Structures are given as structure tokens and as C-alpha cells.
Amino acid sequence: MLTTFKRKRKRLQSYTWLGLPLVLIGGWFFPKLGFFLLSCMIGAAGVALYKGRAWCDWMCPRGSFYDLFIQKISEKKEIPEFFRKKGFRIFMMSVLLAVLGSQIYFYWGDLNKTGTAMVRILTITTSLGIILGTIYQQRIWCHICPMGTVGNFLSDGKKPLVIGEQCGATCKLCSKACPMQLKPYEYKDEGIMGDNDCIKCSTCVAACPKKALQFEDKLKKAA
Ligand code: SF4
Ligand code: SF4
Hints:
This protein is mainly alpha-helical. It has helices spanning 2-16, 19-24, 36-51, 55-59, 61-73, 86-106, 111-135, 146-154, 173-177, 203-207, 216-222, and strands at residues 161-163, 213-215. It has two domains: 2-154, no CATH class; 161-222, Alpha-Beta Plaits (2-Layer Sandwich), CATH 3.30.70. Helices cover 57% and strands 3% of the residues. It starts with a helix and ends with a helix.
């Protein structure tokens, strides 16, 4: 089941990741492609209002790229705890949004220069994500990505993952499979996953041998 599920998810990601080279490479020749960055920001925030960080699953070109390619060369080490700290994430988000805002202000009215500035920011942050993803785990950037942090803030209670009583919290296969290295079993007593960084990818649902995990909307539909 997990293999079939992974194949399906890869298929979706294999379409969306193409948006990354389109902007990263194409943007140096057609700078207005850089504005694609803004549409991604709006898309991530919009989806978060209804489905939490679901955008980051397969709709985000960069997230898809990390899962498809960096995962193969990643050391797959545990993501250091401070990458999950609210203070560090807000700091990263503030720095990147300040850089983006100042570039837009500075080049106001010149769409090509503004677009190039966005391509430059995308190039620098993606390169950083590749380096960190190779040293640690492919999705480490998704913990400090400003779009992910905004998505985290807007995700509270959206499309919750339910942890059923079948879970013994011992095998931890859900966590081993999770691309974000989250730990659904830690929320067994509450019965609902309380980590807003869940990208709603369903990998854990497919990986759980006890069939203890399911998203609330799917349970409601089945009832
Ligand atoms: S894989 Fe399933 S049974 Fe195992 S710890 Fe996770 S939720 Fe519990
Ligand atoms: S907890 Fe499950 S659904 Fe959420 S990111 Fe991890 S594997 Fe995906």
C-alpha cells in the first residue's frame, strides 16, 4: 500500500516540480517569471486557510523538487530542534520578507528588475535548502520557509489527522515515513495530531500497519 501510495504522490510531484527550473533558469532570461514566487505565496496561504499546509505536499514546486531529487542524496539525519522553534522561524521569515519587500520598493515600477530580484531570492533560498537538505533531511527547508511558517500559523485545526485507539505508539513507522519528520503517535492521547507543520501528505496513513491514522474529512465521508 505504501509503495502504491508513494508512486501516486510522486506522479503529482513530477508535474509540479517543473515550476522550479522554469523560474530558476527561465527567470534569468524572462525576469517577469520571478512573479511566480508571489503566486506561490498566495497559493500557500490560501490553501492553509482550508486545508492547513497541504500546499507544501505536492503543489509547491520546491517541496516536490526536494522530495523527488534531494531525498535521494540526503543523509536523512534528524532535523535539529531549533529549526522548529517559533523564534527562529519568525526571524527567518522577517529577514526574507524584509529583503523581498525592500527589493520591490527599490525597483518599484520596473517589472523586469523586480522579477530578477525575486529570481535571485528564489535561487539563494533554494540553494540553501539543497545544501541543508543534503546534510540533514530533504525537507528541512520547509521548516523555515516563510510560506511554510505562514501556513503553520494559519493551519490550526484545519484538516486534522485523527489517531485511532489501534495505535500502540510503539512501532513509530508513521514518523519514519513522514517527510517532515513529525510524530503523529505522540498525539495518541489527544486523538488529534496537534502539529501544524503536517503537510497532509497521507504518507503516515499509508505506512501505519494498524490503520490507526486517517484525516477527519475522510472519516466523515466514510461515516
Ligand atoms: S505507525 Fe500507526 S501504530 Fe505505529 S506508532 Fe504510528 S500511528 Fe501508531
Ligand atoms: S504527519 Fe503524516 S500527513 Fe502529516 S506530514 Fe507527516 S506523513 Fe504527512
